[in-house]
Amino acid sequence: MRPFLAVALLLPLTAAVPPQPAPESALAPLAFEQVAPAGTKMPRFKVDAAWPAMPDDLLLGQVSGVAVGPDDSVWVVHRPHSLTNTDTGLAQDPPIAACCKPAPPVVRFAKDGRYIGGWGGAASAPTVDGVNQWPASLHGVFVDKAGAVWFGGNGKGDHVVLNYSADGQYIRRFGQRDKTGGNDATDLLGNPSDVNHSDGMVLVSDGYVNRRVIGFDAQSNAYKGRWDAYARPPIAPTRQGAFDQSHAVDPSKQANPQAQTFADIVHCVVPTRDSHVYVCDRNNNRAQLFKREKDGGLTFIRDLAIAPETGGTHTVTDIAFSPDPDQTYLYVADMMNGRIWILLRKTHEVLGAIGRVGRQAGQFTWLHSIDTDSDGNIYATEVNTGRRVQKLVFTGIQ
User: Which N-terminal stretch is annotated as signal sequence (predicted)?
Assistant: First the structure.
């Protein structure tokens, strides 16, 4: 037996991870394009190529969500099933390589990049009507003010949003795996892509099978409303069959930023501090902005087209804000162009963009989800063959 295999066999595969030292940062420049007139000030960033510090034996698959918690810890969800046997040689029986094992599906990092821990998987989820409720393919993550963690899924039968405590204890769910009732259903979902819990509401972008936003009362779990584009009742057809990533690059899917309905990937739901909410209509290359009414309803405000002529995987995948009280700047993740657009939120003027398509630090392959911490740093994840999370360090307004 090779020596590294002998050593690996002596290590329990579920051994606790010892505390990790904070990594030294390694800042590098980002691609930057200025759109606003010369002299316009805007946030600037560099990429920390040393972030995060994963344990030596763990590996992330497609990282399909990132959220910053109230303590500035950084949560990601990933897809262990997207790793191959050659990626995870240490996890094979018997092990076939010195590294690696899949990280737990839900992983928590300190802001400085230290690995805090992780949890999740079928053993942590309830079984309902004989079906385990853990999603086959995690999608999106949100951490609320109490530190509770929320996520959905876009795999086959993943018609559920799950809510857990920070230490991985199941709290509740919305929807049910393997059951979907279309856009008119008030108690079932259809591949929910994103979730937000704030202001007494749970809002879900629903998502990859359905084409709507749906809201629930956060206390009673009761249905509150459902909305298509322009805050109208949902009328668009649902996806027939399960989603797979080939659908994301279907050349027949032409973006229409003036479409009267959401396209077939409603990708994010992101509220603001001033009672508005952005919804990502990815395949129409737009976000839509709504006002949140006191009764839980939504009122349409405006369209926000981003690189509207883009094809392929299209553009608007996620939205985040600068952390100042007014959330002065709006950040829009653009999957196909591999960049994060910087906008002035009050006017939606495009100021510039950071990043480009690629595989080096500060470049993006299938850019998927973004969020910001209290210092203004941006965290960005990648799916498909990207399979990572990156930290873009805020360096000031220039």
Answer: 1-21
- 152 falls within a domain: yes
Is 368 part of a structural domain of the chain?
Answer: yes
Residue 58's domain is classified under what CATH number?
2.120.10.30
Checking if the pLDDT of 10 tops 50, the result is: no
- Rounded distance, CA 181 to CA 210, Å? 9
pLDDT tens, position by position, 200-236: 999 999 999 999 999 999 999 999 999 999 999 999 9
Adjacent-strand bridge partners of 225: 215
pTM above 0.85, yes or no: yes
DSSP state of 295: T
Distance (Å, rounded) from C-alpha 56 to C-alpha 33?
36
- 149-153 and 160-164 beta bridge pairing: antiparallel
Domain annotation covers residue 216: yes
Task: Report which DSSP code applies to 3.
Answer: H
d(CA 221, CA 319): 26
Q: How far, in Å, are 30, 43, 156, 395 from residue 338 at the CA level?
A: 12, 18, 27, 21
- Which residues are within 8 A (CB) of 312 and not within 5 positions of it... i.e. 6 or more apart? 249, 336
Q: Is a pLDDT exceeding 50 seen at residue 1?
A: no
The confidence score (pLDDT) of residue 253 equals 85
The encoded tokens of residue 230 equal 């322009």
Question: What SS3 class is residue 7?
Answer: helix
Q: Tokens at residue 66, please?
A: 């990132």
Q: Please name the residues in contact with 227: beta carbons below 8 A apart, sequence gap of 6 or more.
A: 212, 213, 214, 233, 234, 290, 298
Instruction: Report the number of distinct structural domains present in the chain.
Output: 1
For residue 158, what pLDDT is reported?
98
Domain that holds residue 34: 26-397
pLDDT at position 378: 99
Which runs of consecutive H residues, i.e. helices, occur in the chain? 3-10
Residue 11, domain member (yes or no)? no
DSSP β-ladder status, 27-28 and 339-344: unpaired
CB 247 within 8 A of CB 267: no
Classify 346 as helix, strand or coil.
coil
